[in-house]
Amino acid sequence: MFNILLWIYGNHYPHSMRFKLEGYVHLARMIDKCRAVLAGTEGEYIYPCPMDDRLMEFAGITADQFTTAVKANPSDEIVAKWFMKTAKPHTPAELNKWSEMMLNRGPSTPEKKEYFNKLRDAVDPSRTDLTAWADLQDLEEGRTVQKIFGRSEVWLLTHFTALIALKDILMAKHGEFQSGSQADQWYA
Predict the structure, then answer these.
(1) pTM assigned to the model
(2) What is the 3-state secondary structure (H, E, C) of the chain?
(3) Is pLDDT above 90 for 89?
């Protein structure tokens, strides 16, 4: 599990994958983990991990290139500028689509799903709504993760909202319902 050992580098966890640096999700987290590996303080964190590999593949750079840039530049801002200069150019739409994929990506095999559930259950077994690695990382590292509605909850909210809108339309067209009317009793 990621949070068994305190993130030693700087006495904190790496940035959330959600934190954007130069428009890229995961870049700040990857820099943090790379710096920790260089300092020998990564604990159970992995650099490069599969998510790091996805970012580097999208950018068209290698782990060796990235590690060299992090080693040579003491500030995240300078590394980010290097990254922007070196990475394959992408349109804002491509970058947004890729970022959404990264943030929503979940386990891709039954074995990875079982591993995901084991990690989640060790932190909070009630959070069966979580399906994305980014959410699990945030949960493990003590960040607030919004409750994700299930399909039945979304269905209820959608239909309840539609009923309220219909009631408002009917009231605007016909005035207030008489107390005791079928519609009033049904809505109550």
Answers:
(1) 0.73
(2) CHHHCCCCHHHCCCCCCCCEECCEECHHHHHHHHHHHHHCCCCCCCCCCHHHHHHHHHHCCCHHHHHHHHHHCCCHHHHHHHHHHHCCCCCHHHHHHHHHHHHHCCCCCHHHHHHHHHHHHHHCCCCCCCCCHHHHHHHHCCCCCCCCCCHHHHHHHHHHHHHHHHHHHHHHHHCCCCCCCHHHHHHC
(3) yes
